[in-house]
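Appendix C: a fully annotated inverse folding record. The material below is reproduced so that readers can follow the format used throughout the book. The structure is listed first as C-alpha cells, followed by the designed sequence.
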C-alpha cells in the first residue's frame, strides 16, 4: 500500500512538472522524442537548437541497475534534468551538463533540457 502511494505521488509530481512546463508560454516543450538505440549500441547522440524559454524532452527506456551517462555539450545557461516516472528527479539543476546515475527501476526515463538563452546543443546518452 505504501509503495502504491509513493508511486502515485511520484507520477503526480512528474505529471504536474510536465504539464506546468507545457502550460506556461515562456516554458514551452518544443521537442518530445523517444530515443532508441541502434541494435548492439549502448549510446545515442542527438543535436538540436533550443530557443530561450523552451524545453526539449527526450525519453529513453532502461533497466534497473543500469548506469546512464548523460553529456550535454552547449554554451550559456542551458542544462538538463533526468527523471524517472516513480523515482522522480534523479539528477539535474541549473548548470548541470554531465552526470552518471545508477537507475533504480526498469522503465522510461525523461531527460529534459531547459535554457535561458537560445543555443545549439549535442546530447549524448549512454546506458551500460
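Designed amino acids, in order:
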Amino acid at each position: 500500500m505504501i509503495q502504491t502511494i509513493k508511486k502515485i505521488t511520484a507520477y503526480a509530481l512528474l505529471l504536474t512538472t510536465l504539464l506546468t512546463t507545457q502550460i506556461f508560454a515562456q516554458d514551452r516543450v518544443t521537442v518530445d522524442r523517444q530515443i532508441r538505440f541502434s541494435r548492439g549500441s549502448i549510446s545515442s547522440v542527438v543535436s538540436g537548437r533550443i530557443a530561450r524559454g523552451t524545453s526539449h524532452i527526450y525519453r529513453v527506456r532502461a533497466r534497473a541497475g543500469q548506469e546512464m551517462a548523460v553529456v550535454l555539450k552547449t554554451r550559456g545557461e542551458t542544462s538538463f534534468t533526468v527523471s524517472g516516472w516513480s523515482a522522480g528527479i534523479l539528477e539535474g539543476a541549473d548548470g548541470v551538463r554531465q552526470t552518471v546515475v545508477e537507475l533504480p527501476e526498469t522503465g522510461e526515463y525523461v531527460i529534459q533540457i531547459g535554457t535561458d538563452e537560445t543555443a545549439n546543443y549535442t546530447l549524448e546518452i549512454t546506458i551500460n
